[in-house]
Design the sequence.
C-alpha cells in the first residue's frame, strides 16, 4: 500500500495532525515505535494549557499557543476529554523583579492573551491563601487551564482512527529515502511508502530530519522531574502557581490536576540520554525545595508517586514546523516543548493544511468530528448508574478501589481503537493504578482482563510494552 501521508510519532502533536488530516481524502498512517500512543513527552508533563504570555511575540510558539488555548474548551467538549480553565498566577517575590513581571504582561498583550492583570500580593493571597508572604505581586492569566494529556491524546487518536487513520505500533523507523517520487520509510517491520511524511518523533525528530536534509537540526532532551500528591492534597491551591521563568523554562509550578491531585515540578536538566526518564533524589529534593518558595505548608506527606519526562528542546527554542526546503514532501513537527501541549490543536491544523495543499486533497463530506470518552459511572446520577449496571453488570464490579474504576471501564479501554494493550495503557485511559496504592491491589485483575480480552498469556503482557513484562513465568504444573 502507498499512503498519502505517514506520520512518525503518536504523541499529542502527531495525533493532532492525524486527526486534522483525517478531515481530508487520502490514506493516512501513524507509525509509533512504542506499544501505544502517548508514550513519550506527552505522557509526562505539567498538563498545563498555557495562556501564551511567555513566548516571544511573533514566534510560532506565541501564535500557536494562544490559538490552541482559545480552542481547547471547544475541543474538549467535541472529543470528550477533561479540561478546566482555572487561570494561572506568576509570582513575583521582590520589587526588583517587578519589571520582569511587567514585561510578561506587555508581552502577553502583544501575543493576544486576554484578561491579563497584575495583582498585589494581598490580592494574590486572597485568591490563594497558601501563597507565601514573600509574594509582592503576580501576573494573573484567567485564560490558562489544566488538561488530561493522556485523555487528550487518546481522544485525538481515536477520532483519527474513526475517520480512517491507520496506526502501526511497535514499529521503529530506521531510515528514510526518496525513490520514484515517494518516501521510503524503512522500519524494523519492513518498508512503508508514502507521498508525504510528517516527522513528529519528539526528542528523536532531529535524527529523522538530519537523515533527509543538509540543514541540520539539533534537539537536546531536557529532563523534568515531578512529584504527584494524593487527592486529599488537591485543594491546597485552586490555580496554577508559577514562578518567574528562567533560562531553562517556566520553573517549578504548583497546580491542581483535572483529576483532583496536586502536582509539583518540573526541574529542568539538559541530558544526553534520549531515554533518561529516571528520577533522582537530588531532582525531587529540588522540586520540593523550590515549590515551597511559592506555596506554604505543602502536604508533602501525601506524595504518592514521582516521575520524569523529557522535553524536546530545539537550539533556537522554537517550534520547527513545515516542509523541509531540501526534502520535498517531508514535513517537520519538531522542537515541540512547552507550550507544545497547549499548541497541539493549532499545530495539527497548520500542518494538516500544509500537507493537504501539497497533495491536493479535498475535504471529506463524511468526517465525524466527535468522540465519546469512557463512561465513568461515578460521574453519573444514582439512577443513571443503576441503569448502566443493570444493562451491563461489569460496571458494578470495582477493580481499582483507589480510583473506583470498574471492570466495564477497563473493558471499554481495551476494546477501543486504538485500545489499551498493557497495564499502563489501561492506567492512562481509566486511572486504574493511579491512586494511592499505585496499582498494588488492582494490577493482577487488570492483567487478567487484558489476557482474556487480547488472548495473550499473562506472562506475555507488559507494563508498558517492550521488555517490561510483569510476570517472569508460570508454573504449568499447578492448577
Sequence:
Amino acid at each position: 500500500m502507498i499512503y498519502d501521508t505517514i506520520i512518525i510519532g503518536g504523541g499529542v502533536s502527531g495525533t493532532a495532525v492525524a486527526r486534522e488530516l483525517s478531515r481530508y481524502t487520502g490514506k493516512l498512517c501513524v507509525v509509533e515505535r512504542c506499544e501505544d500512543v502517548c508514550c513519550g513527552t506527552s505522557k509526562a508533563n505539567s498538563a498545563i494549557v498555557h495562556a501564551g504570555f511567555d513566548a516571544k511575540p511573533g514566534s510560532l510558539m506565541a501564535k500557536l499557543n494562544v490559538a490552541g488555548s482559545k480552542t481547547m474548551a471547544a475541543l474538549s467538549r467535541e472529543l470528550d476529554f477533561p479540561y478546566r480553565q482555572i487561570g494561572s498566577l506568576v509570582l513575583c517575590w521582590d520589587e526588583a523583579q517587578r519589571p520582569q513581571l511587567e514585561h510578561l504582561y506587555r508581552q502577553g498583550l502583544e501575543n493576544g492573551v486576554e484578561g491579563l492583570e497584575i495583582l498585589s500580593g494581598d490580592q494574590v493571597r486572597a485568591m490563594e491563601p497558601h501563597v507565601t508572604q514573600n509574594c509582592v505581586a503576580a501576573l494573573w492569566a484567567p485564560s490558562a487551564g489544566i488538561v488530561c494529556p493522556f485523555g487528550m491524546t487518546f481522544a485525538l487518536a481515536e477520532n483519527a482512527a474513526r475517520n480512517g487513520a491507520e496506526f502501526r505500533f511497535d514499529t521503529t523507523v530506521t531510515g528514510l529515502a526518496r525513490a520514484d517520487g515517494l518516501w521510503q520509510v524503512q522500519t524494523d517491520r519492513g518498508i512503508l511508502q508514502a507521498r508525504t511524511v510528517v516527522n513528529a518523533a519528539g526528542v528523536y525528530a532531529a535524527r529523522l530530519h538530519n537523515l533527509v536534509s543538509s540543514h541540520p537540526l539539533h534537539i537536546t532532551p531536557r529532563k523534568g522531574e515531578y512529584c504527584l500528591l494524593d487527592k486529599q492534597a488537591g485543594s491546597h491551591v485552586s490555580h496554577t502557581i508559577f514562578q518567574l521563568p528562567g533560562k531553562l523554562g517556566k520553573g517549578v509550578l504548583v497546580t491542581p490536576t483535572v483529576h483532583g491531585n496536586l502536582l509539583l515540578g518540573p526541574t529542568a536538566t539538559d541530558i544526553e540520554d534520549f531515554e533518561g526518564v529516571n528520577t533522582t533524589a537530588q531532582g525531587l529534593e529540588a522540586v520540593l525545595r523550590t515549590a515551597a518558595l511559592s506555596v506554604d505548608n505543602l502536604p508533602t506527606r501525601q506524595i504518592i508517586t514521582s516521575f520524569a519526562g523529557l522535553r524536546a528542546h530545539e537550539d533556537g527554542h522554537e517550534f520547527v514546523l513545515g516542509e523541509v526546503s531540501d526534502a520535498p514532501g517531508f514535513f517537520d513537527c519538531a522542537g515541540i516543548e512547552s507550550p507544545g501541549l497547549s499548541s497541539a490543536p493549532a499545530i495539527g491544523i497548520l500542518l494538516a493544511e500544509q500537507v493537504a495543499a501539497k497533495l491536493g486533497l479535498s475535504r471529506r463530506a463524511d468526517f465525524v468530528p466527535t468522540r465519546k470518552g469512557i463512561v465513568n459511572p461515578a460521574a453519573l446520577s444514582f439512577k443513571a448508574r443503576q441503569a448502566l449496571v443493570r444493562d451491563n453488570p461489569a460496571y458494578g464490579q470495582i477493580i481499582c478501589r483507589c480510583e473506583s474504576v470498574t471492570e466495564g471501564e477497563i473493558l471499554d479501554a481495551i476494546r477501543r481503537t486504538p485500545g489499551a494493550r498493557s497495564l499502563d495503557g489501561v492506567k492512562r485511559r481509566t486511572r486504574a493504578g493511579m491512586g494511592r496504592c499505585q496499582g498494588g491491589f488492582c494490577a493482577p485483575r487488570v492483567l487478567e482482563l487484558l489476557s482474556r480480552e487480547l488472548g495473550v498469556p499473562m506472562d506475555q503482557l507488559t507494563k508498558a510494552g517492550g521488555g517490561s513484562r510483569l510476570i517472569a513465568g508460570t508454573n504449568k504444573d499447578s492448577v
About this structure: Residues 20 and 83 are 20 Å apart (CA to CA).
